[in-house]
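Researcher: I'd like a candidate sequence for this fold, 122 residues long. If you have to choose between options at a position, lean toward the conservative one.
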């Protein structure tokens, strides 16, 4: 594992009801703007909604582990992180770090490990 090669953070919100899912999406939209503005290093983020199961996945990309910690300096994110539990929304979150070039990981090819978060060097 190469933590300096990038991080992917995936947070799962199991909302249970449509009303809670919609509240979470509104809250997430507000938080996302502040994180993009105030956190250091956010590359991008997306939300995936499974309407049938009432589940939201929040996926964000970060250049390194230090940048993930910068979310702690976003006041709205800190406050919002306490709300899902109070609303009855179950959550889990995982941080995934760069494991190497896909050819090396999948086929044990001797290619150098280059993070896709860095420019491709010819």
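Model: Candidate sequence:
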């Amino acid at each position: 594992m190469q933590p300096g090669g990038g991080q992917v953070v995936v947070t799962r919100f199991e909302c249970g009801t449509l009303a809670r899912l919609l509240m979470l999406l509104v809250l997430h939209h507000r938080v996302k703007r502040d994180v993009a503005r105030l956190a250091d290093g956010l590359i991008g983020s997306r939300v995936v909604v499974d309407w049938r199961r009432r589940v939201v996945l929040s996926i964000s990309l970060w250049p390194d582990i230090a940048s993930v910690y910068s979310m702690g300096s976003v006041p709205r994110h800190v406050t919002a992180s306490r709300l899902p539990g109070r609303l009855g929304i179950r959550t889990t979150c995982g941080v995934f770090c760069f494991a190497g070039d896909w050819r090396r990981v999948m086929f044990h090819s001797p290619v150098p490990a280059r993070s896709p978060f860095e420019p491709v060097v010819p």
